[in-house]
Amino acid sequence: MIDRVFLIVLDSFGIGSMPDAAAYGDAGADTFGSVLRSEKLSIENLKQLGLCNIDGMHGGVAAPVGAYARMTEKSNGKDTIIGHWEMCGVISQRDMPTYPNGFPKEILDEFTRRTGRGVLCNLPYSGTKVIADYGKEHIETGKLIVYTSADSVFQIAAHEDVVPIEELYRCCEIAREILQGEHGVGRVIARPFTGEHPFERTSRRHDYALLPPHATTLDLVSGAGLDTVCVGKISDVFAGQGVTKAIKTSGNTDGMAKTLEVQKTDFKGFAFINLVDFDMIYGHRRDIDGYAAAIAEFDGWLPQFMANMREGDVLMITGDHGCDPGYKGTDHTREYTPLLVYGKQIAPKNLGVRESFADIGASVCAMLGVENTLGGESFAREVLQ
User: Fold this and answer.
1) What whole-number distance in Å separates Cα of residue 47 and Cα of residue 41?
2) Under 8 Å CB-to-CB from 337, ≥6 apart: which residues?
3) How far apart are the C-alpha atoms of 12 and 320, rounded to whole Å?
4) Which of 174, 204, 316, 331 is the residue whose CA sits 20 to 30 A from 168?
5) 75-81: average pLDDT
6) Residue where a domain stops, chosen among 188, 209, 230
7) What's the pTM value of the predicted model, to 2 decimals?
8) Which pLDDT tens digit goes with each residue over 86-114?
């Protein structure tokens, strides 16, 4: 009997471009392949779980201790929301809207009218570069720095001394109300920063996601009377829907520490964790060594978590898309992701190439004894012993 499933998402940990990657401008992208070039990388524990035994990978161990698979994204897109939603049974048939030339005038006019503040930038931009380039003007004028990326996002950067954090959050709520229908971006994101040039982004980021179009694994598990403990940005990604407890984090190290705290509690159900630094700090900034060091930190953390697992615990590790730090540009990349499954009741096994991230949610439900009314094919029977 499985009592608890821990699903840890290494945000942007891709393992090679998907067959349709060229349609996204990502032919040949390989996040893990790029990271393998770094001397900062250490993955001995991930290798023991079966990371390098996944179909198409190299350097596997003779006897992995976990089950492992290559995950295919069935949805259209390569966004955080689309990837996480698919894990929980939502297959997105169309890409969420993106704005490579900035947002339409009518959107920004309504935003300005309702917030009482003007807008700067309105272009795709790096989050750190945009505050370097527009921070001074923002402080002088009080206008909000609005920018986007290749993802479906409307991001608002503001200095905390100019726009108090609660006002920034309210501006994001206004943007979320405006950005619906054809302009329904996946996320509106508050990006507060402080200091003097060079400015520094703070940990008080907040995401305002679209509501999922239908029930998710989180709804099914919580609806069955079990706990759904969400660590990091997971609750934001699902707009709080189906979440019984949300725990904020300030980065990977804090996220891993809080995951250990959750592990010590007597909850029963599903713990869903996102470690965002791989993507936000290293992938988008194309920092191969930083990405590798972050993986090494996670790899070094794993033995402590695994040693504390109970008889009825299952650990799953995956990614939500790619963000190849060795690739052109600064955007996400359309890639396969890994899946590693470990526990005292899990039989080591090659689960092959899965057709959808939704197999994860289906398996979470099956392991917890919850009826799955969504998509995905459970691998629970294949691995439970």
Assistant:
1) 12
2) 13, 14, 15, 70, 71, 73, 83, 318, 319, 320, 321, 322, 357
3) 6
4) 331
5) 93
6) 209
7) 0.91
8) 999 999 988 889 999 999 999 999 999 99
